[in-house]
Structures are given as structure tokens and as C-alpha cells.
């Protein structure tokens, strides 16, 4: 359990669609162009020429590659290094049914052998939950009824887990495989840089992928304000961000593997150690103090 108000900045559960809406509202009209798949860039003097798969191209002052997990901008900078599969998919759901006794001020997780379940509140009337189960990347169960599958796996776990699954509409349950990349410091050149998953795809162990993309944007905007050229700003941003997010990529990978241990003896040892330690110690050992206490 992590109490959301125990750090300098309280943790906040937010629905992705709400975040997108808030961000979009800050943009001037007509500045988002859909169906323009980035293909390649070329640096021409102080400009960057960007070409798209639909045959169009633009010349601009700088390029920030924020094109996610399979980033084409990253591929051009770093070569083709496909993300590695973590060994488990994540199921996610949101429900309006708030079970009695649910603590709105905590983020919690329960760990078993090769599977885990957790959640947090989104505002006062919704609950977000997630479930992880060790499965192969090409899973024959992929096409089955996912809600029944989860109820089979977690139906006898402690409350409110079975209630949360049962209260969620089948169509509101998402399933995605999880991947990460090894840290690679080559984020940019000239007037080109990377941001978010394109720069530092990480396992979702701490729920930090989107949070770190937001921190990237904050630091990048500071660097642009402090430097007279984009290339100087981009290099300062990369030097500032890389050490921290590289550490987070490694921590997320290591802790993610420990929390999904399939060996029952190891899983029991892990759970016993975490449950006998005072909260402060377990937060320290699991890296939660370092992650939630970090100031960008
Ligand atoms: C199951 C799961 C649970 C997660 N839970 C959390 C969580 O609790 N908290 C958290 O902070 N993070 C979480 N994350 C991570 C989070 O989703 C990502 O880190 C975040 O979305 C990264 O944002 P981004 O903008 O870098 O990339 P994305 O959100 O992937 O956006 C990339 C954009 O680029 C576009 N694009 C892709 N290719 C091209 C191209 N060639 N040309 C043009 N556009 C392109 C895509 O369409 C997309 O719009 C989770 C991830 C997963 C998979």
C-alpha cells in the first residue's frame, strides 16, 4: 500500500481520456494533423525536413519524436532494436461501482505466484484496477472471454478484487502485452530529440511511463527557455533526463520480474519479507520512495 499524500506531490489517478482532453484544450485550433505517419527526417543546415508515409513533407526548426513504443524516430537514431516482451500481459478496467470500505487515498497491489492485482481511485466515483498474469507473448487464451478468465484466476482472492472484476463491463476490460527497452543514451542529434516511450520505454511496474513523458515535457520546455539554440536545448534536456529515466527503466524491469516470480517458495519469501517490514522500509526496498519522491 502506498498512501497518496505521503510525498511532497500527492499521487493522482487520472483517466487517460481525461488527460488527453485537458492537454488538447491547451492547444491552438488546427495544430493537430491526423493520418500523417512519420517516415524519415533529414537535417538540412539548421532545419529538419520531415517526410510522411502519405508522401507529404514539411521543413521545421526541430523534431521531437514522441511516437511511442515502436518509434520510427528512435529507429532512425538507434537502429532497429525491437522492444523486449516482459512475460505478462496487463488487463485494465474502470468501474463506477465503489465497493464498501474502499480506501480512496491509497494505491494498492496484491502479489501472488506469477500474478498480481491492484488499483486506485479515479476521483470520487470511479476505480481503476489492473491485473497481471505470466503468459506467453502469443497466448492461445487471447481470444477467450477475458472477464471469465480473470474471474477464474482472481475469483478467490481477497475483497474487493472479485467484486471489482464482476462490476466491470466485459467491453471495458483492456488487455495489452507489456514491453520495455534497454536504456540507450542516443536520444538525439542536431535539432532532433526523443520524448516519452520513444526515448525510454519502461515496464509498467511503477505506473510511470506517462508520468515520465510529462516530466520530459516539463524539463524540455525549461531547457528551450534557457538556451539560444534548439540543439543546445535538446542536448541539455537529454543530459538532464537520461540518468534518471535509465535508472527507472532498470528498476522497473528488476522489480517487475521479482513481483511476477512464478516459483511459489520465492513468492512466499518475497511476500513475507514485505509484510513484516514497516511501510517505510518496504517503500525503500521496492524503490517506491525513490520514484514517488523524485523531483524533476
Ligand atoms: C498496460 C499498460 C499500463 C500502463 N499504465 C500506466 C500508468 O498507470 N501510469 C503511467 O504513467 N503510464 C502507464 N503506462 C505507460 C503509458 O501508457 C505510456 O508510457 C505513455 O502512453 C507514453 O506516452 P507517449 O506519448 O510517449 O506515447 P504514446 O501514448 O504511445 O503516444 C504515441 C503517439 O504517437 C503516434 N505514432 C506512432 N507512430 C507514429 C508515426 N510513425 N508517425 C506519427 N505518429 C505516430 C501514436 O499514434 C500515438 O498517438 C502503461 C502502459 C501500458 C501498456
Automatic annotation (TrEMBL):
Q: Name one GO molecular function term.
A: oxidoreductase activity
Task: Check the record and name the SUPFAM superfamilies matching this protein.
Answer: FAD/NAD(P)-binding domain
Per UniProt, what is one Pfam family of this protein?
Answer: FAD_binding_3
Q: Does the keyword Mitochondrion apply?
A: no
> Which keywords fit this entry according to its UniProt record?
FAD, Flavoprotein, Oxidoreductase
- Domain named FAD-binding is located at 55-247
Keyword DNA-binding among UniProt keywords = no
Report the cofactors.
Answer: FAD
> Which PANTHER family does this UniProt record tie to the protein?
PTHR46496, ZEAXANTHIN EPOXIDASE, CHLOROPLASTIC
Protein name stated in the entry: FAD-binding domain-containing protein
Amino acid at each position: 500500500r502506498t498512501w497518496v499524500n505521503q510525498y511532497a506531490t500527492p499521487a493522482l489517478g487520472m483517466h487517460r481520456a481525461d488527460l488527453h482532453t485537458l492537454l488538447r484544450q491547451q492547444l491552438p485550433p488546427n495544430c493537430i494533423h491526423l493520418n500523417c505517419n512519420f517516415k524519415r527526417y533529414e537535417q538540412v543546415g539548421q532545419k529538419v525536413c520531415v517526410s510522411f508515409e502519405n508522401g507529404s513533407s514539411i521543413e521545421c526548426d526541430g523534431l521531437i519524436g514522441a511516437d511511442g513504443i515502436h518509434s520510427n524516430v528512435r529507429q532512425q537514431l538507434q537502429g532497429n532494436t525491437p522492444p523486449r516482451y516482459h512475460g505478462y500481459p496487463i488487463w485494465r478496467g474502470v468501474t463506477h461501482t465503489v465497493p464498501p470500505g474502499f480506501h480512496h487515498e491509497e494505491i494498492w497491489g496484491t502479489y501472488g505466484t506469477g500474478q498480481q492485482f491492484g488499483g486506485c481511485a479515479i476521483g470520487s466515483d470511479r476505480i481503476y484496477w489492473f491485473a497481471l498474469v505470466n503468459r506467453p507473448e502469443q497466448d492461445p487464451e487471447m481470444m477467450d472471454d477475458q472477464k471469465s478468465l480473470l474471474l477464474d484466476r482472481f475469483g478467490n482472492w481477497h475483497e474487493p478484487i472479485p467484486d471489482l472484476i464482476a462490476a466491470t463491463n466485459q467491453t471495458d476490460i483492456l488487455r495489452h502485452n507489456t514491453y520495455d527497452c534497454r536504456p540507450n543514451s542516443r536520444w538525439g542529434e542536431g535539432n532532433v530529440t526523443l520524448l516519452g516511450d520513444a526515448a525510454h520505454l519502461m515496464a509498467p511496474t511503477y505506473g510511470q511511463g506517462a508520468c515520465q513523458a510529462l516530466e520530459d515535457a516539463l524539463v524540455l520546455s525549461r531547457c528551450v527557455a534557457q538556451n539560444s539554440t534548439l540543439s543546445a536545448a535538446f542536448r541539455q534536456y537529454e543530459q538532464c533526463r537520461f540518468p534518471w529515466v535509465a535508472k527507472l527503466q532498470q528498476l522497473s524491469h528488476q522489480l517487475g520480474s521479482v513481483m511476477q516470480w512464478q516459483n511459489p517458495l520465492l513468492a512466499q519469501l518475497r511476500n513475507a519479507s514485505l509484510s513484516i517490514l514497516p511501510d517505510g522500509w518496504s517503500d525503500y526496498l521496492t524503490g517506491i520512495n525513490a520514484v514517488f519522491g523524485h523531483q524533476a
